[in-house]
Fold Type VI secretion system tip protein VgrG.
Amino acid sequence: MPVQLGRHDRHQYGRHHPDPTTVTTSLFTQKNRQLAVKGPLAADTLLLLRMQGEEALGRLSEYRLDLLGTDADLDFDALLGQDMSVTLALAGGGERQFNGIVSEFGLGAALPQSDRLLSYQAVLRPRLWLLTRASHCRFFSGKTVLQIVLDLLERDYHIDVDNQCSASYPVLPHCAQYRESDFDFFSRLIEREGIYYFFRHAGGKHTLVLADSPQVHTAIPGYGQVDYKPWGAQLCEAIRQWRGGRQLQAGRFSSNAFDFEAPSKSGQQGLLARAKLPQAGELEQQDCPAPYTDAAQGERYARIALQAHKVLSQRIEAETNARGVCPGGLFRLNGHPRADQNRQYLVISASYTLHSDAYATVLETDAKPVFACTMNLIGHDVGFCSQPLTTKPSLTGPQTAMVVGPEGEEIHTDQYGRVMLQFHWEQFSPAPADKRLQRCWVRVAQGWAGKRWGSLFLPRVGQEVIVEFLDGDPDQPIVAGSVYNAANMPPYALPAKAAISTIKTASSKGGGGFNELRFNDAKGSEQLFIRAEKDWESYVKHDALTWVGRDQHLQVEGKQFVKVGGAMHTLVGGDHNQKVDGSVSLQTGKDLLQKAGMNFAVDSGMAVHIKAGTNLVIEAGASITLKAGGGSIVIGPASVSITGTPVLLNAGGGAGAGAGCSPTAPTAPLKADDGSKELA
């Protein structure tokens, strides 16, 4: 049965022409009117002439009001940001409210037929609209999308929220808002996750409802069923026009991602996610709507993308004068000649035109309907999903940032060599000290990165680094290099030492020492300089060849140990001079051969002992002389001369024995690190 309108609606279809001169007196009241405006001003300060508005799931509502008033001293600024409501009488009793804050207020066009009334215009928008007026550069770490948006809405803007979301959402290690309005940030996050919103209006306020499933929606009170009556009596609330059908859309969606902690899985389609609509065509979209590390999460993103296509493919447009219909509500259509159309629908958007039922003669002569609505619908079984209209900011160039870490730490990293960064734009709203390190780890690009091989230089706390963003995504920073600044100057004074290239480290913790590999390319002063602050170990598995074009100097302040496993050959083109302040021990396992091209001299400050196990042969081509004190024996080629005072033969006594030789065994050198040594 059609819903019957009340007696107040009968003004809207006839002509009612009160005397224009009496509009500002007897008619200037909202009492017993079907439309009224309520706000911070006294009753009847403003009267509503007409309202046009739009509402939609997942979109901001807007109501444009044409108002009448006699007060020429209204303070426009005082009205901005204040709650204001339009009330519409319902046929079955009660009222419907359209609430928002005053986002715009000013004078309207001059009124015909009256010089005593002023025309005003106001625009009402939800409190959520305030998010479009503010922008931030910040990030959130270790929170889900739902936690982020609730913080944003409730903590930052004190918006009344009814969270009806039932799905679970992944924790995001890093979620950046960069040079975008709070509303765009909010919108793109919920669009990506399949969350949407609508508003409930009551008590002069509005509540933001967050939803992610069809179960959130309920039948519209008093309008659970609406008849289709294109030619019915105008006093009946019904659907007047019904247009709709099907639209071709993609029926498949594929997504892929890369997880650096599981590169093999990523490279073997382990993170490839697909979704398909039942009875859909073969048109496929391939995209990466968001990074993910779990295939199930990727499939969820794919289903969300497909659901948005499904909403587009089955949309219906209708026109009605049923005053209760609103986005987010359900009703069942009755009486359509096509039986498949008579089912339950979800209102996803609506455009309204409301006209006052008693002020028509002020501006126009033809009375118009109090309420007219054009709405878009989908079947309740389709399931709503917002279209992803909000673009994520893309960072087209690099930034610099500062490496941060715990107090007192100079190097702060994890098992992947990642570091923590503080971006310069964080200075807009710096984190408190206890939350300074609540941020994500950021990967660091290296010259080489193999399987337990490559190059590794970790940026240290306090250094300024260059940050790129993978695919321009502010949620995927990566350190690409480092730069000097006034706090961290180059190792050598520039431009005076511009010919020097170096890799110079700093001992940690505390500094003071350094290792360095330095190249000096200044003409005439070319140098390769290597410095080890403590130990220098060189491990060569095959040959080590060194060529010195001029002199080589080796200075060891402590001890030197040399071990040669095979033969040792030393060729000296000139003199070979050695000086040992202590003892010299020389021991061979076999022969010891020495040959002098000219003279061979041995000078001992005390005794010289020569001992042979069997034979001792001393041979000279000319003579041999043995001398001790004043006595001597000279053996020549023709004679042997013995000189002594006296010369004794067989005089008794024993000859002195050679003391022999006990060389000190050398200490074996330590083995150089072959790369397997556990590092400190």
